[in-house]
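EI: anyone free to look at a 189-residue chain?
SC: sure, send it
EI:
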Amino acid sequence: MRRIIVSILFVVFMCSMAHGKDVLSSEKPANDLEIITRSGAIIPFQFAVVEQFQLISREKSITGLKLNFVYGYNYGITGLDLGFVSKAQYTTAMQFNLMNIVEQEGVGLQVGLFNLAQSYSGMQFGVFNLCGSSFTGLQAGFLNYASICSGVQFGIVNNCKSMRGIQVGLINVIQDSNLPFFPIINMKF
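SC: here you go
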């Protein structure tokens, strides 16, 4: 029993030390290293129940393992991200959540029911894969959307404004193409 109490006090102490507030610049980071170091020391672990009840504050970047019991938000994630709902500005990660949200740029792998990103390079596997601006890589799911897509979209419904690649699915739409709709396979290079 004494060991459990000491362990809990140690975790609370460590979290309070890492939970300091520092003001972040609104400038876009230059690279992954800046994302990691902008918030100070490298933080290897995050556990979040909801954003208001997580070990490390939302302004910090996590380099290592992030566990989202319900919902977790951090400025940046580098490493492995697991749970229900995860949200970040920037990621260089493998994300396995029911919902993955990247508000700016993401690189890596997203696996979930809903994968949302402003800009993403890598692979998205989910029921709904949505990229607001540019996507490079493979999107595989029921519905795939990217404003600008370079790569492959594989799903029931594939849609993009501009494409450099191939779409394979029941409904394939490339809005700026001479052939904007074509079933089964559509492409533009």
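EI: The chain has two domains: 1-18+30-86, 113-189.
SC: 👍
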